[in-house]
Amino acid sequence: MATVSSKPAKRLSIMSIALMTAAAVISLRGLPMMAKEEMTMFFYIGFSTIMFLLPAALVAAELGSAFSNQGGGVYTWVEQAFGPRAGFIAIWLQWIQNVVWYPTVMSFAAAGIAYLIARPELANDRYYVGIFCIIFYWFATWMTFKGTDVIAKVTSSSFLLGTILPGIVVIILALVWIDHGNPIAFEHLTTKDTGLIALEGGKVHPRFWPEFNSFGNLAFLGGIILLFAGVEVHAVHANEMANPKTEFPTAMLIAALIIFILFTLGSLAIATVMPADAIDLQSGLMAATHIMLDKVGLADWNRLLCALLAIGALGGVMSWISGPSKGLLWTARLGHLPPALAKSNDQGIPSNILLLQGLLVTILSCIYFVFDNVSVAFFLISVMTISLYLIMYMMMYAAAIRLRFTKPDMERPYKVPGGNGGMICIGGLGFLGVLFAFIVSFFPPSNLPIGSPNTYVMIVVVGTVVFTGLAFVIDMLKKPSWRQASDQ
Fold this sequence. Notes:
This protein has helices at residues 14-25, 31-35, 41-66, 74-82, 84-116, 126-144, 148-179, 220-228, 244-273, 284-295, 301-333, 351-365, 367-370, 374-406, 419-440, 453-477, 480-487; strands at residues 197-200, 203-206. By secondary structure, it is mainly α. The radius of gyration is 22 Å and the shape is globular.
């Protein structure tokens, strides 16, 4: 029997959850992807903010506060609306997309270390990137085993040092670049920048709207929306706050504001100093900061900045390891998974789930060994990730709307404004935005050398079907003994 401690349980603060959430969402690795779109980035950022970030934050805030006395996160939300099977599929998609996503953020850290050791060419060396991802991930897993309190400290501090600080520095350097009269790259587009320019009277002007004549020109939308995903991931920690019913929604709104500001100004900073065709998806930020620092005679300081970026990536990985895996642990204890996956260590960390996760990440990191172009591998993994995650988001929005009608009297300390009509409008807006991004993510991007379009589509479709189908297979194979074993 557990003993009662005389000391109150240590609680997570509003800022801790806000920074953990922002750390889970923000990765400066996404700035080159947005900057590569030049002035059309404003369309993508605006679309992602209005059609995705804000609806997701508001809906997650309502669901998180309504079920603050329960664990499980998105599992609980969807299960309450559509039943246990749908809840399991939702948390599975959140978890498995996370597994697929790890190699992308870790390749960004690999690029940072390559610049730190003055070997920038390694950022596009597929063997270096693949091996680095494997080692880096297992280190982050080892840190995660130390518990939620350690995770909160590491993610918050690494987010401030490795994401917020470098992000501010990049923005300041861009302002200095402009102040010194240096050329602004996005003002000097040429006719070779197809899809980014408009011709008026024989003159080239930057486009602020993508060309809608081809889904290939919108393919980056799915990858960019992925950069804004994750505001709901730390809902599993809501019941670790002193007053979750009011503090959790506040934390979500603070996180959303930080995300929007840093993404917008940071990507614009890169587009200020580098032309679109020179921006590499995983090392473009390091290259941009090197150019700006070199211009003011501080090129050596770029190595320190790159070290901080790698630290920020570590915090982001740890933040994601702790959230979805804890939600999956909840479902394992409810009998959706074999009892071996319901085990946790003394810190409450799902040890066997993390070991399984590490094995899968190791296998997926080997995709870098297959593709000669690291940027293509990077984007391909990102697309597979977003296709899985967007399915989960559609389920989350649908659950929030349904619960307004099936559980109208349920206490909701925070509610999406406007009554049921407001939830239908905001949740429906988010659902439609996610559905559109899901569709365009299956079209090959027109501005990447992806090789055969048919091969690209086949890989993305097969990856999406296989990873989603695994949830149905596991659900069909589950046994009553799994639940009984998890109750013991």
